[in-house]
Amino acid sequence: MTQSTVLVVDDDLTVRDVVRRYLELAGHRVALADNGEDALAWIAEHDPDLVVLDLMLPGIDGLEVCRRLRQTSGVPVVMLTALGEEENRIAGLQLGADDYVTKPFSPRELALRVSSVLRRSGGSAPATDVVDGDLRLDAGARRATLAGAELPLTTREFDLLTFLMTHPGEAFTREQLLEKVWGWDFGDQSTVTVHVRRLREKIEKAPAKPARIATVWGVGYRYDRA
Length: 226
What we know:
Elements: E1 5-9, H1 13-25, E2 29-33, H2 36-46, E3 50-54, H3 62-72, E4 77-82, H4 86-95, E5 99-103, H5 107-121, E6 130-132, E7 135-138, E8 143-146, E9 149-150, H6 155-165, E10 171-173, H7 174-182, H8 190-203, E11 213-216, E12 220-223
Parallel strand pairs: 1-2, 1-3, 3-4, 4-5
Antiparallel strand pairs: 6-7, 7-8, 8-9, 10-12, 11-12
């Protein structure tokens, strides 16, 4: 089995060392960076399978690193955020981060989150392609196209869209989507809200009046076929 390469970006030497050891124990190759500029340069040259990204970095902060990454790359990003940084966490998700872990965190939990995101990005797609009008999901390539144009979806966005499209007409709560798509038994349900908003911006003609991903008031969301 091919090892995944994970870049850990954090300016705290202790955090980098602990995360590196746990990720290596989980079978990953690990590279380290302590600032945003070095991280972006390393990613451009080496194309890692996943980035663990602290939001509070010297110089270019984690939010800016994530924003620049999403201009050119769909590499999965797991954010590290401090307990009181809810606004930054939501901003990171809006910029395209796939997951987050709140400091102080369990290194074992982080390693499990990393493995979960890598597993999904590596091929937990449905057995067949999913088509709804001009929206198509290519299972094998984990690509989505709208009217023939490829959609720049992150790993979690692809997973969420796949789940909804393969369960048309069914309403799911945010809690259920966290469990089914993220694999979380508990967590911040605003994560789902942010990802739904990002998907609407990419697949809906009028995101403010969505025709495909409907809000079911008092419940959650439902996918309506075109």
